Amino acid sequence: MTEAAARHTPGTPCWVSLMVHQLPTTQQFYGALFGWEFRPGPQELGPYVRALLDGRDIAGLGRLPPDRHLTTAWTPYLATEDATASAQAVSSSGGTVAVGPLQAGEAGRLAIVADPAGAVFGLWQAAEHLGTGLAGVPGTPVWNELVTRETAGIVKFYQAVFGYGAEAVVSADFDFTTLLLDGKPVASLHGVGHALPRERGAHWMTYFEVEDTDEAAALVRDLGGYVLQPPRESTIGRTAVVADPEGAVFTVVRSHR
Predict the structure, then answer these.
(1) Where is the VOC domain (predicted)?
(2) pLDDT value at residue 6
C-alpha cells in the first residue's frame, strides 16, 4: 500500500471528481464497485462528498444543479501552485476557463478549464486538501489519458501551461504522446483521429486500479452500469472501458505488477 506524495508537483494529476444528477445512487454504485466510503466535503458548489479508502481521500462526487442537463464525466485535476496564473495560461494558450478560479473553503482553490480541443480538466491549488491520498491499490485512480483527434498540436498547449516534457510515438496507425515531469510519466495523450466519438469529443479518461478486470466489468453491469469495451490486454495491463448508471465513462485496469 503506497501513500501518495504529500504535495503534488505542479502539472501532476492530483484528484478526480464526478458531478452527477443522482448523488445517493452514484455513491451506492462506486461504494459497491471500489469499496469506497464517503464523508461530506466542501459545499460551496452544492452537495459534495469525498470518497475514502482506509480513511484516505480518493475522489470527489458532487451533485449537479437540477436544472443543468449536463453530461456526466470524470474530471482529472492537475496540481498548480497558483490557480489564477494557470487559468490565465490556459486562456492565453488557446484554452477556455469555464469555472473559477474560486475558493473551495479551506481545502484550496480550483478552476474548471478546457483545452483548445474542448477536453475538460480541473486546476487544483492545494491548501488543506492535497488531493488523492492513496495510490497504486485497487479502488484508486492510477492513470489519466487524453483521448483526442491528434496529439501534435494539443501537446503544445499542455507544455505551454505546465512545462511538460513529451515522448511521442507517431506512426501511420498510432499517435501517442507521454507527458513527463522531471523525466517521469504523469499522463498520456492518445490521438484517435476519426475514431473520436462524436457525442463526447476530446476528453480525459481516468483509469482506476482493480484486483480483477473481468470481475470488475461484470460487477459494473450487475450494478446497473455498462461495459463499453470488454476486458482486453493492453500495454499497461488488462483493461475494460465501462460507464456508471448515469453514463460517466472510465477505465478499470489490473496493472502489470
Answers:
(1) 12-126, 140-255
(2) 61
How is domain 136-255 classified at the CATH fold level? 2,3-Dihydroxybiphenyl 1,2-Dioxygenase; domain 1 (3.10.180)
Tell which residue, 120, 87, 125, has the closest CA to residue 106: 125
pLDDT score recorded for residue 3: 44
Instruction: Mention every residue, 6+ apart, whose C-beta is less than 8 A from residue 108.
Output: 124, 125, 126, 127, 128, 129
* CB hemisphere CA count around 153 (13 angstroms): 10
Please name which of 34, 38, 97 lies closest in space to residue 250, comparing C-alpha atoms.
Answer: 34
d(CA 99, CA 121): 11
* Domain residue ranges of the chain, discontinuous segments joined by +: 2-134, 136-255
Please write the tens of the pLDDT for every residue from 193-206: 989 988 889 999 99
